[in-house]
Specification:
353 residues, alpha+beta
Length: 353
């Protein structure tokens, strides 16, 4: 589950990470103006969407007074940023910034460990920095057992070329970020920018957090962070039925039993689709390795009325018996195919027709 910026900063504050003098969330221009009046002075009005590129899209604006904050809110609310419509904004007092840095902890799935990334050049698109100047972004593995203490934090910051003058204080912030990452079962904790103010104080001026849904049983409080209004209805319905569903933007619906099998099927369908004008998977839907008949029925209920052909590829225990049952059922619109590659080609052909 991805958090909004204001939720991420609340979580940071819970673990002692300095996040600035205050924040208010508002859903209309009147609320934004009231928040600006409460803070006094210059404020920043920031779109709350779970994607990057807000600044370039006009989703982050400075305002000198409540009237200016109202104008900024009117411009930002309703804005479409990478397919996400802005329904609320964050209002914070403007900060004096002497220097911007980048820092994150994340789950490194490829190497089965955790990874810290740090750079003395924050505030910009980190993907762009990593591509154009990879030497400016330090990547330091973090052992899950030993974790991050002050010594490890200083090692990471030194690798990221942080100025010597701020390393001691920044290291304390990094340790607290690690505590937040670990305690909340996060897969990503990112601060961009992590800033130094004119008094050399280190502040998390922004925040991005992804929580591991698989650990939600340990964190009943995380349920309150779900934005039901912004959640995809199909994804919400699937979650209620203990199904793993992710909506994609393609044309071929995919149901499988086991996350690895579903991921492989997505890849095979995408590959086959390249030969037919870019046909792509429409979803990820894992009904689980031990799926029951009820689970399969629930998965199909997500689709509503099915008017397209259904391509079935069965393999594994009792696959032969399963194929016999499907053949004898003689269901209209159901096509059985022996291999995954062939099934993908047939499904793509139907989708492209």
């Amino acid at each position: 589950m991805d958090l909004y910026e204001y939720q991420a900063k609340d979580l940071f504050a819970k673990h002692g990470v300095p996040v600035g003098p205050g924040q208010r969330v508002a859903e209309d221009p009147d609320g934004v103006a009231a928040a600006a009046a409460e803070f006094g002075g210059r404020v920043v009005v920031k779109a709350q969407v779970k994607t990057g590129g807000r600044g370039r899209a006009g989703g982050v604006q400075l305002a000198d007074d409540p009237a200016g904050a109202r104008v900024a809110a009117e411009a930002i609310l309703g804005l479409d940023i990478k397919g996400q419509v802005v329904r609320r904004v964050l209002v914070t007092p403007a900060s004096d910034i002497a220097q911007e840095y980048y820092f994150s902890f994340l789950l490194d799935r490829a190497n089965r460990t955790f990874l810290a990334m740090a750079s003395a050049e924050g505030g910009m698109d980190i993907e762009q920095l990593a591509q154009e100047r990879p030497d400016a972004l330090a990547r330091v593995p973090v052992d899950a057992i030993t974790g991050v203490d002050l010594a490890k934090a200083k090692e990471i910051l030194t690798a990221g070329r942080f100025p010597e003058a701020v390393i001691d204080e920044a290291a304390e912030v990094v340790v607290r970020l690690w505590e937040a990452f670990k305690a909340e079962d996060a897969t990503l904790v990112e601060v961009n920018p992590l800033v130094r103010d004119p008094q050399d104080k280190i502040i998390a001026l922004d925040g991005k957090v992804t929580l591991d849904d698989n650990a939600s049983f340990r964190h009943p409080g995380h349920a309150a962070l779900v934005d039901a209004a912004a959640e995809d209805p199909l994804e919400a319905a699937a979650k209620a039925k203990d199904l793993n569903y992710v909506k994609l933007d393609g044309q071929v619906g995919i149901i499988g039993n086991g996350a690895g099998l579903v991921m492989s099927t997505l890849d095979v369908v995408a590959y086959a689709g390249e030969l037919r004008g870019g046909v792509r998977p429409a979803n990820f839907l894992d009904i689980g390795g031990g799926a029951s008949a009820d689970g399969i029925v629930a998965a199909f209920h997500l689709l509503g009325s099915v008017h397209k052909p259904i391509v079935v590829r069965l393999d594994g225990n009792n696959a032969e018996e399963g194929r016999r049952i499907l053949t004898s059922a003689d269901l209209p619109g159901l096509v059985q195919v022996d291999t995954m590659d062939a099934a993908a080609r047939v499904a793509v052909k139907f989708a492209a027709a």
